[in-house]
Amino acid sequence: MSAWSARDIPDQSGRTAVVTGANSGIGYAAARELARAGARVVLACRSEHRGGEALARLRAEVPGAEAELRPLDLGDLKSVRDFADGLPGSSDGSLDLLINNAGVMAIPYGETADGFETQIGVNHLGHFALTGLLLPRLTAAERARVVSVSSLFHFTSQVDLNDLHMRRRYRRWVQYGRSKSADLLFVHELARRLARAGSDVVAAAAHPGYAATNLQAASVQSEHRPLAERIFAIGNRLIAQSADDGALPTLFAATAPGVHPDTFIGPRVLGWRGAPSTSTRAKWTLNDAASQRLWEESERLTGVTYEGLG
Prior knowledge:
The chain has ten helices and eight strands. By secondary structure, the chain is an alpha/beta fold. An eight-stranded mixed beta sheet has the order 3-2-1-4-5-6-7-8, with helices on both faces. This is SDR family NAD(P)-dependent oxidoreductase.
């Protein structure tokens, strides 16, 4: 059997997908391939300029694509609410697919508009709020899916609920790992609550392995370390797979038949590259007590509760 590729995406005609961070990298590749498969795609991007460029590129690569741009800043809960309130869905208002892809990596300490540490605020709390606000539309669809993009880097650090914003001693790479563990704990708890409610919405996770995107470059540029920039550039050329290939686990989790709730999909070869396959994950991301505590804290911080999944 040949390896799964974008050509294997089932027909998505009549389905609506939201992809956060769709202006570049694996987010753009995922949005483009969903549009190629017939989906109506909403590119949810913080920068309207970069998002507009991505939309024009997508329409050029996929003539006739049904795609649009909507501003979304995951570091600002007002923007998240405005996006959810203004999002047009399918003809019946439903939403078939939400890909929580946007993120920041190992940046210097900063805070979001709501006072959250930026990495946990954007990578987890912003997506937690967005998913909760869009949940009524997702549950109104048939076979809807929520896919959160994590990273193998989650293995480096567990979430510390006693210092979620890492204000005692900020270490950018440790906090990045914590934010990616938070993504997996979120999917674990969301899948549990959906099952308890009898919902057919599938919550799954994916990671790109080592994919050549601008995420790594942005992290080392913020540190002003030219040598590290050169090392990452060489790694991207010699080791990393392309952004297109890095998007395949996300696309598989979003569209392939038989994807089970709480599945974690990544590249087959050592988790770094290759066709999509079930990926290993840290056992702490499957801890029911930890996922419930993170959920409750996320509700408290964002003010977003999930209708019907209390």
